[in-house]
Amino acid sequence: MALFHVRMDVHIPHDLDPEVRAQTVAREKAYSQELQRSGKWRELWRIVGQYSNISIFDVESADELHEILQGLPLFPYMDMQVMALTRHPSRID
Length: 93
Ligand SMILES: O=C(O)CC1=CCC(=O)O1
Description:
Layout: E1 2-10, H1 18-38, E2 41-46, E3 52-59, H2 62-70, E4 78-85
The chain binds ligand LWBT4IAB.
The ligand O=C(O)CC1=CCC(=O)O1 is lined by residues 8, 10, 28-29, 32, 53, 74.
């Protein structure tokens, strides 16, 4: 098990066809909800006032995360920052 904190900043071009945009966003939603149901996409939060999110992934490896992120329908329109997480020694649970 490996935990990752991911920030995704979405930059869809303003001239993208509105139908393509709507279809891509709908496919993104379905893809992320399937991964949320599987437990791999553990947290998904909107950053207030930005077309950005903070996510926590619970995956087997960095390679698996890479595959998941590359499969995002919005991947071509995103900047991402990934941080690998490990357990803090002061945690009590
Ligand atoms: O809207 C976003 O932040 C991009 C996104 C990630 C998963 C999803 O459903 O939308």
